[in-house]
Amino acid sequence: MEWRRRLALLAVTVAATPLALGGCTADREPGERAAPERTAPLELVVTPTDRARDVPLTTEVGTRVRNGRVTAVRVVDDRGAAVEVEPREDGSGWVPRSTLEPRRSYTAEVTATADSGATTTRKTTFTTQPKSTRPAVTSTLYFAGDRTYGTAMPVTVAFDPPIPKEARADVQRRLFVRTDPPQPGTWSWVSDGSQVYYRAPDFWRPGTRISVRAGLAGLPIGKDAVGDADRRATSTIGRQVALEIDNATKQMSVIQDGTVVRRIPVSLGKPSTPTSSGKMVIMEKRDFTTFDTRGEPNGGYVVDVEDAQRLTWGGEFIHGAPWSEGDQGSTNVSHGCTNLSAAAADWLMKITQVGDLVTVKGTEVELDEGNGWTAWNVSWEEFAKGSALPVPAGLRPSPSLAPQPSAVAGGSPAPAPSGSGG
To answer: Which PANTHER family match (predicted)?
Structure first.
């Protein structure tokens, strides 16, 4: 019958169709291997682009890698001489250790390796620009080599003329600091662009080795100027010393490795020429100098002083003042300086280092931003806001480590601008 013929046909059709079982059942013969997973391809992009011309003398070899890492970088000039390069910490590029020369060709060969072991190599040849005829921005690195500095020493670079806001990120990318042992920090700009400071959230650990490079020679700065020079310095942090000066008591506390070792009577600035309150850093030390304030407001005198330690660009010093010893500890009579007895000033010169923290409190005026190395006169949060580049995550204040004793030697940074105290 017709219905029996249709039922038989349906049975044949079902029997010929494979059954779909659970997803864990392999649909292959025993011993047959699964197809290998496809790995993402290794990608490598190198800059400058091949045959690029008129590139700045501060050009770096930029590398962008996906699914692998850079394993070799080789740079040679047009005479075949090798050019030493250093990697940026974030891996974004390789920086020549010396500024490139004008009107020269360079070839960079970069190799990247995938996790699978596969490699790829890219090569680029580029030519630098002629020597710039634009005016140079004068930069001064206030961090000399082969010195021993205090634990509050900020790495300071000053600029003349100041760096405009739109150019600060480019300048900051060419400022490098390495510390051993590692103690990360950040740069922060004075608001007018005349100085930029580098420090860590906490004071440097005694014994830290700090290497600095301001690689600014030939760097385009805005549309109208270039950087003037490439400077380097490496120095060491000495023992912890800090000075605390209280106007209420007219006393200076000298603190070494966390212990007050001496209290010294002082005379600060009189009301018409008050001493600044704030956190300062000893900038330079002079066994002998002359203060000449003729032509300055509230000035007009010339006086020779001994054992002078500069705190501000405006001319505030700690120094010996035998003429005011009768007032020290009771009355302020100076023109803004911190006056000590001749004997105390001589003793203090043997204890302090450039880079030691000096805190003054209770006077009539506050320390102005940038009047000296004012990196510690703000909180870490405020300091980090002054960076022209993103601050790495995790750089947050932490309790200061207990200072450890260490050897110390005196030292001065590069010569400071003239300025008189009293």
So the answer is: L,D-TRANSPEPTIDASE, L,D-TRANSPEPTIDASE YCIB-RELATED
